Amino acid sequence: MASLNRRRFLQYAGVSAGTSVLASLPAFAADNFPAKSLSLVVPYPAGGASDTSARIFGESISKSVGQQVVVENYGGGTGLIGANKVLGAPADGYTFFHGSINEVFLAPMLNPAARYKPQDFQLAAPISDANIVLMVRNGIAVDTLDNFLDYAKKSKGKPLTYATVGIDSIYHLMGDALAARLGVPFLHVPYKGGAPALQGLAGGEVDFAILPYQSSFDSMQQQGRLKVLSSFAKALPPALKHIPLISQSRLVPDFEYSIGGGYFVRQGTPASRVAVLRKAIGEALAKPEIRAKLEAEGRTVAQPINSQEQANQVFDQYLGRVTQLIRNVGRKTNAS
After folding, report:
1. Is residue 39 within 8 Å of 67, Cβ to Cβ?
2. Which residue range(s) make up the domain with 160?
3. 283-331, pLDDT tens digit by residue?
């Protein structure tokens, strides 16, 4: 009996001591975050549109939070490798994701190799919509989108090839949808990111490409290495006014698409830490010089948001847009 009482006393004392120790420590969500450098994961190789945007934000976020933001590139798998890097890290806010509807939504909904679902991510804040363009290689003698589409219709015997950042990306689905509209086959050639896809087009490996706009496209066009024929946007920032809108097309004026993106964390990250990131992202979005840089790179820039509720609403909007796109091209999701 005495032995039993002693064990109970020790158990009680241990719990009490543990509780006392825990109570003396700062709450995980209320500590001095960040206390070390942050990892900003970009799911594509360096040099692409996502990488350029992330480096613009990374510098500003670093100044806001007082810690270094290290941009880490993980190309391949249409963003799966980068997404898994974030989901494999602790949900502590120190690793966050420069993500878009490609990696967070389309990949897990369409790719059986994706072992996660969109809801495994939490949107901290939206940052921009990337404007998507169609470009053709040097040697295709067309000057407008409609001329190119007429050219494509005459190439049924030998399907035209097109480059994107990967299988089941929004650009891939757009290519399939455009082929269906025209009634002609296209052959998809996936690359590991925007930079390799662009080099493939400029090198004549493919006939055309569907990619998010970058300012480097204009210089490559001036060099005669490619031609930018159209954007798929309803409207463009001032820096892109020289690019024709899809609404100017006679054949597919309603073929409008853009790609929303933002900064995501792993679900379960403490709310106070997400709020620190959101505040830093908002401060970047409020800077005129950053907005100008992003617009010059073809981005329609979001306004800062102030709450997780607003972020959740944008997340749901992204999910709705992706679901509709999948239906439009006649695909089934992994859950179907």
Report:
1. no
2. 131-258
3. 999 999 999 999 998 899 999 999 999 999 999 999 998 998 898 888 8
Cα–Cα distance for residue pair 275/270, rounded to 1 Å: 9
pTM attached to this predicted model: 0.83
The amino acid present at 319, given as its one-letter code, is: L
How many Å apart are CA 269 and CA 284, to the nearest integer?
21
Beta bridge partners of 138: none
pLDDT for residue 10 is more than 60: no
More confident residue, 28 or 250: 250
Cβ atoms of 226 and 220 within 8 Å: the answer is yes
CATH number at residue 222: 3.40.190.10
Name the phi and psi angles at 94, rounded to 5: -80, -15
In whole angstroms, what is the distance from residue 320 CA to residue 336 CA?
16
Residues 263 and 251 in one domain: no
Strand 160-164 versus strand 95-100 pairing type: unpaired
Q: What is the CATH number of the domain that holds 77?
A: 3.40.190.150
